[in-house]
Automatic annotation (TrEMBL):
The keyword Cytoplasm applies. Confers DNA tethering and processivity to DNA polymerases and other proteins. Acts as a clamp, forming a ring around DNA (a reaction catalyzed by the clamp-loading complex) which diffuses in an ATP-independent manner freely and bidirectionally along dsDNA. Initially characterized for its ability to contact the catalytic subunit of DNA polymerase III (Pol III), a complex, multichain enzyme responsible for most of the replicative synthesis in bacteria; Pol III exhibits 3'-5' exonuclease proofreading activity. Forms a ring-shaped head-to-tail homodimer around DNA. GO terms for molecular function: 3'-5' exonuclease activity; DNA binding; DNA-directed DNA polymerase activity. Residues 21-137 form the DNA polymerase III beta sliding clamp N-terminal domain. Belongs to the beta sliding clamp family. It comes from the Bacteria. Keywords: Cytoplasm, DNA replication, DNA-binding, DNA-directed DNA polymerase, Nucleotidyltransferase, Transferase. Coiled coil: none annotated. CDD domains: beta_clamp. Pfam families: DNA_pol3_beta, DNA_pol3_beta_2, DNA_pol3_beta_3. This is Beta sliding clamp. One of its GO terms (biological process) is DNA strand elongation involved in DNA replication.
Length: 397
């Protein structure tokens, strides 16, 4: 294959030839690049942020990616002939390494920040940039970290992330609030129209005294979620996430990977004030039945509002919608209900989001006060250690 043209010599003092020279397994390198590449900013006005930072020392290659708001540092084993550092265009490297066959890859820094990559009969030179331009990434604090079980954190994120506001102007709603206590932890997210709140009791969080509240940005939660999904818990330390923070930064360590995120500033709203206290009418339905009915009826809801009407009458729940464009639809679910009739409107997508989060199994309890007050949904199961509820503002229909 043809290689890139040789680097032109420039007037600047080039890094010494031969600085950073390593051999690394293609499968191990690809695994770490896959983890890190989602942090790299695709469209950036700062070119260096499109690059990975490679640092080789002793028998490790450390890879760092950052978009200034968050960063991921990860590493893999490498045979280090010459320790050193270089930066390589992230997307191009990732796409190229994916196309190489399994085996050893050698990476070598050349003059003018060019990087040579050899694998079998393939020989490629990529245009890198000066290591000095790469932003400094904060180090994980040496003290004060808290261990959180991976399954617990993964579940809490999945049950709240969809309720985070995507409106940039509502700055303090662009994240979820993590509340840690010595024996419990909770996560809550809201966009002003709905609120998801999950609390896990019976936890044992060493190093937490009183109550520690931390606002975690949506982007960091998404990144954390995919890191946790790929955590294979092969080692003891991957059963836990180590969480720490300082004045400006949040740190999450999962096995050998460290995710950092800039903190969201500002005050999360007093969510406890909006949790319904006297929703005394309720109905219990199978999640699967409710999901099916909602998905069918939502096809005919107004496209902009997604509004469906829920009508509760003697032993039945009716879900209906209509729009001038597409027509109208109604589904009936038979279920015990012995309170006054009630008609209330909700955004169908918000209801579906919750059912997806609980896995669309078992039964769900819908609790109401009247047509003007917030409704509450929760799984109807006997899990005493986990309390999950979802509060929805009604719509005028």
């Amino acid at each position: 294959m043809s290689t890139a043209a040789s680097p032109l010599s420039s007037g600047t003092s080039a890094a010494p030839t031969g600085n950073l020279e390593i051999t690394v397994s293609r499968s191990e390198l690809l695994r770490e690049l896959t983890a890190a590449q989602s942090v790299v900013e695709r469209k950036t006005t700062i070119p260096i942020l499109s690059n990975f930072l490679f640092e080789a020392d002793e028998d490790r290659l450390t890879i760092t990616a950052t978009d200034l708001d968050q960063s991921l540092r990860t590493s893999c084993a490498a045979k280090v002939k010459k320790p050193g550092a270089c930066t390589i265009p992230a997307r191009k490297l990732y796409d190229y390494i994916k196309l190489l066959p399994d085996g050893e890859i050698s990476i070598k820094l050349m003059d003018n920040h060019w990087v040579q990559i050899r694998a079998g009969r393939s020989n490629t030179k990529m245009v890198g940039m000066a290591r000095a331009n790469f932003p400094q990434v904060a180090e994980f604090p040496t003290t004060g970290s808290i261990k959180i079980a991976v399954p617990a954190l993964r579940s809490m994120i999945a049950k709240t992330i969809f309720s985070i506001s995507s409106e940039e102007s509502r700055y303090t709603l662009n994240g979820a609030l993590l509340v840690l206590k010595a024996e419990s932890m909770a996560m809550v997210a809201t966009d002003g129209h709905r609120l998801a709140h999950i609390e896990r009791l019976g936890e044992n969080l060493a190093g937490v005294s009183g109550e520690k509240k931390t606002l975690i940005p949506r982007k960091a939660l998404g990144e954390l979620s995919s890191l946790l999904a790929n955590s294979n818990a092969a080692t003891e330390e991957e059963d836990y996430v180590e969480f720490a923070d300082d004045d400006t930064t949040l740190f999450f360590r999962i096995g050998g990977r460290v995710l950092t995120s800039r903190k969201l500033t500002g005050q999360f709203p007093n969510y406890e004030a909006v949790l319904p206290r006297d929703n005394n009418k309720f109905v219990i339905v199978r999640s699967e039945d409710l999901m099916g009915a909602l998905q069918r009826v939502a096809q005919f809801a107004d496209e902009r509002s997604g509004a469906v009407k829920i009508r509760l009458e003697q032993n039945e729940l009716r879900i209906s919608s209509s729009s001038t464009d597409s027509g109208e639809s109604e589904d009936i679910i038979e279920t015990p209900y012995n309170y006054d009739p009630l008609v209330v409107g909700f955004n169908s997508q918000y209801l579906i989001d919750f059912l997806k989060a609980i896995g669309n199994t078992g039964e769900v309890r819908l609790e109401f006060k009247d047509a003007q007050s917030a409704g509450q949904m929760r799984p109807e199961d006997s899990n005493e250690d986990q309390k999950y509820r979802y509060i929805l503002m009604p719509m005028r229909i």
